[in-house]
Design goal:
Elements lengths: L2 H7 L6 H8 L3 H22 L45 E6 L11 H14 L10 E3 L5 E3 L21 E6 L11 H16 L8 E5 L12 E5 L1 E3 L11 H17 L3
Parallel strand pairs: 1-4, 1-7, 2-4
Antiparallel strand pairs: 2-3, 5-6
Helix pairs in contact: 5-6
Length: about 260
């Protein structure tokens, strides 16, 4: 094919200015230039077809599961061992932090007895079907399984009136009103537990989440959408002083530590 014909065949793919330059090149040199330029155009098109960094999936953030003592360690023959079948949500998108409003001067070896006492009160006087908290943490940083159903599953708890769905309740054993020291081992364990539990749904512990109240007794009327922290105090969703002013003041620090444990 004559060179002029080849240039016309490439016309739809080459800029007009470049064609004028090629037209002035002699013979084989022009042919080589045309081939090289065509290859360059194809490479540019292939590169532009790749997804941009913004279009790529976000990095999944998770954290390792901390050690969790099973509920069989605090149950005994004096309390029921088989609660009704657990109820589940699709996932956990927030955690609420509580305190148990019980004495602080306890030996950590007594934590199972204290949890058993709390459980007996909730299924007795309150007539609940199980302990309301999904997890409990003692002052030495030991994490206990609370409500039955599986620690890695999105078990619906009974811990924050109006906001039990898609959330988990973590209770600190003790009373943490203003001026009360909050043990570092306890806050570190809460952070590790929240990082893992929220990480299962790739939720940032420092973020906000939209939750809809299911009960008029909560801080928000039933059906009201509220924007709450993904790691919140009980008082964010209910009219209460729980988890106490001292533990509430530690929440920003707990959020940051949990985020670091997720690799954020």
């Amino acid at each position: 094919m004559p060179f002029a014909v080849r240039v016309r065949a490439a016309k739809g793919r080459m800029p007009r200015g470049l064609l004028m330059v090629l037209a002035g090149l002699p013979g084989l040199a022009a042919v080589l230039a045309l081939v090289l330029c065509s290859v360059g155009v194809d490479r540019t098109r292939a590169h532009s077809d790749r997804p941009s960094a913004a279009a790529r999936p976000a990095v999944a953030h998770s954290a390792p599961r901390p050690a969790i003592v099973p509920r069989s360690r605090w149950l005994d023959a004096s309390v029921p061992r088989n609660p009704p079948p657990a109820r589940y949500d699709d996932r956990v998108v927030a955690v609420f932090i509580h305190h148990t409003d019980s004495p602080n001067a306890y030996d950590c070896a007594d934590a199972p007895r204290i949890i058993r006492y709390l459980y007996a009160g909730q299924i007795g006087a309150r007539q609940w079907d199980d302990i309301g908290y999904n997890f409990l943490v003692d002052r030495c940083g030991t994490i206990y399984e609370g409500r039955a159903g599986g620690v890695g599953r999105p078990v619906t708890g009974a811990h924050t009136q109006g906001f039990n769905h898609r959330t988990a309740g973590i209770a600190a054993l003790g009373t943490f009103t203003a001026g009360t020291p909050v043990p570092r081992a306890m806050t570190d364990a809460i952070a590790a537990l929240a990082a893992w539990k929220l990480g299962l749904s790739h939720v940032d512990p420092r973020a906000k989440v939209r939750l809809v109240s299911s009960n008029n007794l909560s801080r928000y009327a039933s059906g009201t959408a509220a924007e709450l922290p993904t790691l919140a105090g009980h008082n964010a969703g209910f009219m209460t002083s729980c988890p106490g002013a001292a533990l509430t003041a530690k929440l920003p620090e707990i959020r940051e530590r949990a985020a670091r444990l997720q690799g954020r």
